[in-house]
């Protein structure tokens, strides 16, 4: 894992030297832009529209357009000097409750690992945050970009989530076509609550999958093997005008799905309890008798295990 940043977490007069690592990664399937005729990747060039020449990186500066067509420019070193005062410090300003922060403020999360000289202070901060159930709100600058940050514990590891400033959050007044608040029908509200209760569950991130990515990978494999890519037919959605009918249909669908899952879960538990670990191609028929002794039952079970052949599990690519 590559180090993104080195510096220190500070609160009061305490400094905790840390290294920063990205806690997440982009799992998108990379695609290149190709010329359709030749299947060759397209190249991009940095071209000046005035002289029509390609521009090298050492000839490029950053600029701010204060009027149309008028810029003030900054060299890379100038921007580094402006950021240098806080670029190596995550300065905690306040400690707050996590529940007070709306998720709209969060950007990207990083793990913080201690430098060798800062292990004691690192462990102290971790334990203090766990004991108080607080998170730190800090200022940080990474790659000349200043942002707020939430310092909290994730699975026993000190982490930092960059955040937007309040002025970066667009006010709701800018959202067009928001519906006016009207009195909700009590029957519809009760049905909506029932539907939410039916779909309520504990958050288990492992059970959510990127379905588009799976379909795309299957399509890529089919194309590599020269197979025709087959697409699932689009579902025809009917325009349900009556909201109550839509709620009732959703509730029924949710109950049916819940019942099916519970049935499958119950069957799998029964099978798991009755079957050995290895899968069998056939089940030996045995006559059950309430009068049979425990020793006879054990012998029958042992014999059925010996007779059954495990089925070789097919592995997918």
Automatic annotation (TrEMBL):
Compositional bias per record (Low complexity), positions renumbered to this chain: 289-307
One GO BP annotation of this record: DNA recombination
Cross-referenced SMART domains: Ku78 (SM00559)
Any one Gene Ontology molecular-function term assigned to this protein's record: double-stranded DNA binding
Annotated PANTHER family: NON-HOMOLOGOUS END JOINING PROTEIN KU (PTHR41251:SF1)
DNA repair is among the record's keywords: yes
Official protein name in the record: Non-homologous end joining protein Ku
Start and end residues of each Ku domain: 52-180
HAMAP family: Prokaryotic_Ku (MF_01875)
Subunit (UniProt): Homodimer. Interacts with LigD.
Compositional bias ranges of the Basic residues kind: 277-288, 308-317
Function according to Swiss-Prot or TrEMBL: With LigD forms a non-homologous end joining (NHEJ) DNA repair enzyme, which repairs dsDNA breaks with reduced fidelity. Binds linear dsDNA with 5'- and 3'- overhangs but not closed circular dsDNA nor ssDNA. Recruits and stimulates the ligase activity of LigD.
Source species, domain of life: Bacteria
Region (Disordered): 253-317
Organism per entry: Paenibacillus zeisoli
CDD domains: KU_like
Alphabetized UniProt keyword annotations: DNA damage, DNA recombination, DNA repair, DNA-binding
Family per similarity comment: Belongs to the prokaryotic Ku family.
A Pfam family it matches: Ku
């Amino acid at each position: 894992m590559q180090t993104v940043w080195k510096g220190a977490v500070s609160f009061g007069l305490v400094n905790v030297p840390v290294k920063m690592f990205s806690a997440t990664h982009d799992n998108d399937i990379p695609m290149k832009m190709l010329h359709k005729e030749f299947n060759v990747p397209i190249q991009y060039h940095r071209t000046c529209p005035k002289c029509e020449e390609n521009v090298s990186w050492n000839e490029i500066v950053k600029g701010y357009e204060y009027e149309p067509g008028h810029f003030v420019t900054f060299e890379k070193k100038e921007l580094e000097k402006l950021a240098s005062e806080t670029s190596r410090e995550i300065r905690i300003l306040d400690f707050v409750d996590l529940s007070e922060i709306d998720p709209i403020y969060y950007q990207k999360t990083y793990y913080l690992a201690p430098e060798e000289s800062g292990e004691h202070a690192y462990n102290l901060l971790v334990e203090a945050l766990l004991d108080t159930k607080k998170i730190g709100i800090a200022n940080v600058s990474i790659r000349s970009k200043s942002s707020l940050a939430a310092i909290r514990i994730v699975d026993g590891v000190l982490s930092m989530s960059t955040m937007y400033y309040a002025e970066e959050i667009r006010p709701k007044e800018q959202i067009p076509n928001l519906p006016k608040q009207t009195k909700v029908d009590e029957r519809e509200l009760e049905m909506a609550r029932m539907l939410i209760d039916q779909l309520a569950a504990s958050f288990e991130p492992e059970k959510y999958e990127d379905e588009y990515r799976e379909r795309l990978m299957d399509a890529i494999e089919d194309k590599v093997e020269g197979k025709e890519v087959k697409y699932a037919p689009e579902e025809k959605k009917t325009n349900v005008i009556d909201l109550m009918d839509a709620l009732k249909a959703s509730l029924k669908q949710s109950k049916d799905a819940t019942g099916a899952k519970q049935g499958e879960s119950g069957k799998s538990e029964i099978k798991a309890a009755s079957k050995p670990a290895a899968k069998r191609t056939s089940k030996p028929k045995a006559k059950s008798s309430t009068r049979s002794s425990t020793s006879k039952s054990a012998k029958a079970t042992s014999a059925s295990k010996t007779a059954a052949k495990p089925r070789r599990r097919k592995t997918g690519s």
